[in-house]
Amino acid sequence: MKKTPLITFALLGLALAVQQATAASILEEVLVTAQKREQSLQDVPIAITAFTGAQMSALGITKSVDIAAFSPGVHISGNLAGQNTQFSIRGVTQNDFNDIIEAPNAVYLDEGYLAVAQAQTFAVFDIDRVEILKGPQGTLFGRNATGGLVHYLSNKPNFDDNNGYVDVGMGRYDTDANANRTTVEAAYGAVLSDKVAARAAFRYNKQDGYLKNLYPEGAFTAAPGGTSPGEGAGADLGDDDTFAGRLAFAFQPSDDTRIDVSMNYATSEVGTGPYQSKSTIGIVENGELINVIDTPADETRLTIDTAGGDGGADLIDGDGFLPGGGYGFDARLAPGGDFFGYLDPDGDDFTFSSDFAFADQGSTDTKGINVRVERDLGNGTVFTSVTDYKDYEKLLFIDVDSGPGNQLANYAGVDATSVTQEFRLNGETDDMRWVTGFFYLNIDNQSDNGLKAPANSLIGPLDIGVVADLQTDSYSLFGQLDYDISDTLSATFGMRVIREEKDFDVGIGFFPSLSNHTVNQGEFIPNAVGAGSPYFYDNSTSDTLWAAKAQLDWRPSDDLLLYAGVNRGVKAGSFNAPLLGSYLGSGGDAAIDYGEEILLAYEGGFKMSLTENTRLNGSVFYYDYSDYQAFLFVGVGGVVINADADNIGMELELQSSPTDGLDVILSMSYFDATVKDIPLRSGSPLPPRDVDPTYAPELQMTGLLRYEWPISSGSLAIQGDISYSDEYYYNLRNFDADKFDSYVMLNSQLSWMSTDGLWQATLAVRNLTDERAGVQGFDLATLCGCNEVSYRDPRSFNIGIRRDF
Fold it and tell me: Where is the signal peptide (predicted)?
């Protein structure tokens, strides 16, 4: 390990030793609504991690997915080099890059379900708290997330006083691109009358590209694919220009009724996804791709045939389109490079050379309205209605080979809306708590996906496009009952019955490519791939599904809660919208439908208050999956398939303020998950294998120390956090090259707060040791002789100042 983190923590230890601690702890009691009623975190018999908005600010949380680093058993997955990032919980994930796929870990904002995977990544601002629930949550939450869910709740208007804040931050990334970042966040809430209150909040982020582009360095211009795709090519990547705002009103027409109405809008402009290339080579046995490894420095073959020779000119992986060596090459154009002779100049550092790299090429837009009505009916019964509407639009691009060869780009677009409506009744008596209700969801999702062959490319200009339309209607009735068997023992029973209806149609074929910034324009080109193309498919399904829960909770003392139970989770089946190669290579229409997944989750845990300021929580679990929905990526695309799986694991989390001013967070998680009988490809003659799930590090650990002490002008606080992640695969086939190494991430922060608590200033270094922590990757060894990989942000230096009022 480098000396820098050791010095940082040595200084932190010295500060702890010499200062007199009199400041308040940030580890305040967190109230959560994980069971659709307000409870203390320690009273909820669920494996749950929760943080208040103040705690998230202290942890440096700025994006929704940042919270994963501080939640045991939670990681990130997704695609588009981090521009589309999703949550992975206890190894349950979904990294298909088409947005008609719903993630198995649901994300909610103010009880509104985010139906499109892209929307799981959003700016965090003016947030009251976040709740991360592990395991199936289908009984009480309207979308049956088999893996778990993340629920962000924003600050609401209040009727007590007027208040707000302004927070300004600046940062600089430590790369050759010398990229800067500026953020402005503000919120203000006002009491307009005794019956009306309002709150407005916004966040603006302007970030330069931190991935320095040296294009056309490394381009073999005499070779096919060595010509620029157009004006503006070769831009630095990692830029972001985001504005997000929220306007909320609260109406209190009577003492027993409250109506909350909030409107939100977010828009982002980003460059091409910041992937980088690493050279890889396939290993072929009897014409079958059996492994992918990092390319040896002196290797010139397209692929390695175990029988001798070069297997690269054959259709070796069944993807059905543009196989390795399909460009007429006899060998790689440079030893150790990709097919086009390119090798990243500094490996996993943030300098590269890519032709299809444009500033402000992609965009995302999300807007919505949420209406929540709560009325106290008396006798311990409360009626709640939550209505939520959202509109999602995006178009994002990546360079497939992430190098200077003008080969192919990938694009992902969506135009979708979602509507949810929940009605529920909560009630309680002396020995019972209950909730029951009705939930409706409609998703109208139109997606554009495909491969772009730009101008001057090997086969362009063409869009090898997929246009899909999925209409989903889901209706469910649900209920849960908590019954006190005795003063210390209680039982929980819950159930949800779902009616799921889907209508799907898809077209797969070729379009003319009109520019580098538009996709799937006009009509399909007829007979572009034989007489059968373009290919069309449509189908409808109607299924009845159910989820259930049974659990016992025992509280032998006020400071200890023990629980054990079984959960049945379910996620509805759906349809693939595969790229052309995946469609042809996976059996055509036979690869489009896939079934529902069912999870039986057995879990036990404890919540213990060791002292007034120290709590220790833990859980153990066993997952038994039937027809787990796994994303199998082969060649240049993938499909979701059903496969059985199991998982056994445990989690521990300690939060403590052992003395005034000192906060300690320690957490760890471990699991051993297996996805069973996964084929190398559709139709492979080789036997299927048991594999690890993707984006599923078996061991994760997190530690945080924060110490605050008074000075004459207020207080100072010094903080350091460290997180460790085990290695993990990003391709379900578990080939050797398709793996990110383990990593250790370090952050440090020094902050000052004025005596009156109205001013705060911070100095922070994120990713202190400039660690290369993998985010997302794709195996393209048979398409470009490379894998595309992306990493978390490089080291950055940040300052901020905040004024509360």
Answer: 1-23
**Which of 13-27, 121-135, 179-193 is the least confident region?**
13-27
The CA distances from residue 597 to 117, 225, 539, 560, 564, in Å, are 18, 43, 19, 35, 23
DSSP code at position 296: P
> Does residue 372 contact residue 365 with C-beta atoms inside 8 Å?
no
Q: What is the CATH number of the domain that holds 615?
A: 2.40.170.20
- Residue 15 banded pLDDT, cuts 50, 70, 90: very low
Task: Supply 560's token pair.
Answer: 């200890």
Residues making up the chain, counted from first to last: 805
Confirm whether 584 is domain-assigned. Answer: yes
User: Where are the alpha helices (H) located in 47-198, listed in sequence order?
Assistant: 53-59
Strand partners, 594: 574
Asked, for residue 443, whether it belongs to a domain, the answer is: yes
Cα separation, 345 vs 215, whole angstroms: 11
User: In total, how many domains does the chain have?
Assistant: 1
pLDDT on residue 650 = 97
262 in a structural domain: yes
> Is 295 inside any structural domain?
no
Tell the residue number behind the tokens 């000192």, with chain if given: 662
13: phi then psi, degrees, rounded to nearest 5: -60, -40
DSSP state of 265: E
pLDDT tens digits, 646-681 = 999 999 999 999 999 999 999 999 999 999 999 998
Task: Look up the domain containing 744 and give its range.
Answer: 3-155+174-280+343-804
Between residues 508 and 54, which one has the greater pLDDT?
A: 508
Q: What is the pLDDT of residue 309?
A: 59
Specify the pairing of strand 148-154 against strand 240-254.
unpaired
| The model's pTM | 0.92
